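pls ignore typos typing on phone
manganese (II) ion + seq
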Amino acid sequence: MILNKTNKIIILGPCALEDYDQIESVAAMAQSIGVTYLRTQVFKPRTSPDSFQGLGEKGIDVIKKLHSNYSEMKFVCEVCSEAHFETVKETANIIQIGARNMQNFELLKYISKNFDPSTHDYVLLKRGFANTYNEWIQAANYLLGDKVKKENLLLCERGSRSLTSDTGVSLDFINALKAKNEGYQVIIDPSHGSKKSDYVLPLAKASLAMDFKGLIVEVHPRPSESVSDKDQAISIEDCKSFFNELDLNE
Ligand code: PEP
Ligand code: MN
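k done
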């Protein structure tokens, strides 16, 4: 067990849930190193309508089967609509709102009203890749209310469009620090924040050096075969050394 004493929120898993064997192999590794939260993404907002859109409702059966074998594990699901929320609300412990939906205000209002603290630990709000700090915080304000308290909210910096990086995206640590200094729980996504697996470990180290609340990292059993975001996924094999190097225990 590598992460037995961490107080950080560590989320890992594939970009998209592809099938039971894929997610099970990531879950087994995650459990062995002490990670609690697994990415189980069944709805994928994709640039092209011809790309894999996620397993959808069929994925819920996969998550249920996984739950029966890994009852300690908790699950993170992205939702893009009210219907998606209804589909995942019983199996997801973290409700993720992706960068593209940061300003889907009706969705934010719906989640604010229907968040269930008895099942849902957090709502995770990613910053849009072309949104200002103020827009991010105002989006967060749509979520906060009777059910979603500040302690249930995770803000996630996942990189903004950039003309200067070779991958077209740069992590914006300054605005992430600003949110942290204003009392929000901020986690960093070094995977979408760099788009390249080589950069994920150094960015994760930098995030922890800045004392952010946690990390969300894409991991795949065979990155080159991933149906989405294959260049940024780290392999299961590399995961142990990745977390050993991060030295997360208090
Ligand atoms: C994701 O985390 O799977 C994702 C789609 O990220 P983002 O919304 O940041 O692009
Ligand atoms: Mn992805």
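Residues 15, 41, 78, 98-100, 126, 158, 192 surround phosphoenolpyruvate (ligand 1) (CB under 6 Å). The domain at 9-245 is CATH 3.20.20.70 (TIM Barrel). more later
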